[in-house]
TrEMBL record:
PANTHER family: BIS(5'-NUCLEOSYL)-TETRAPHOSPHATASE [ASYMMETRICAL], DIADENOSINE 5,5-P1,P4-TETRAPHOSPHATE PYROPHOSPHOHYDROLASE MUTT
Keywords from the named record: Hydrolase, Nucleotide-binding
Keyword Zinc carried by entry: no
Pfam family name, one: NUDIX
Record family assignment: Belongs to the Nudix hydrolase family.
Domain called Nudix hydrolase: residue spans: 1-131
Identification of the protein by name: Bis(5'-nucleosyl)-tetraphosphatase [asymmetrical]
Length: 139
């Protein structure tokens, strides 16, 4: 079985004392998720997360290595996917320039709306863990 390794982050900003989460919609499906992508060459997961966020949104972020969640699942093509998600905070006044070939839409969502918008339960679980981490004092 082929394993595809990917990395990204739950990107957030603080508005009115609460985190707002960045979600991206795929240009090729109705999938809503976090900025992430395939590990290239000898990149670390942290390097991949930073690069993918920059490529997909033009945001230059600092990825928090203190938190991560790992998602492992089998895909319809028979491959196994291993995804590492971190958290990354950005300022409220950032401008997002989406990578149009991969991203058709994006938005900032409060926790409950972000959770309802995410396309898969494993991403909802990752958001739950990130939100718990952030609201427990990492903000």
């Amino acid at each position: 079985m082929i394993t595809e390794n990917a990395s990204g982050a739950v990107v957030y900003q603080i508005k009115d004392g609460q985190p707002q989460y960045l979600l991206l919609k795929s240009a090729t499906s109705d999938f809503w998720g976090f900025p992430k992508g395939h590990v290239e060459g000898a990149e670390t997961d942290l390097e991949t997360a930073h690069r993918e966020i920059q490529e997909e949104t033009q945001l230059d972020v600092t990825v928090d290595p203190e938190f991560h969640v790992v998602l492992d699942y089998d895909m319809q093509n028979g491959h196994h996917k291993h995804v590492v998600l971190y958290t990354a905070k950005v300022a409220n006044d950032v401008t997002i320039t989406r990578q149009k070939v991969e991203i058709s839409d994006f938005g900032w969502f409060p926790y409950s709306e972000a959770r309802a918008t995410l396309s898969y339960a494993n991403l909802q679980g990752a958001l739950d863990q990130a939100h718990a981490y952030l609201t427990a004092g990492a903000l």
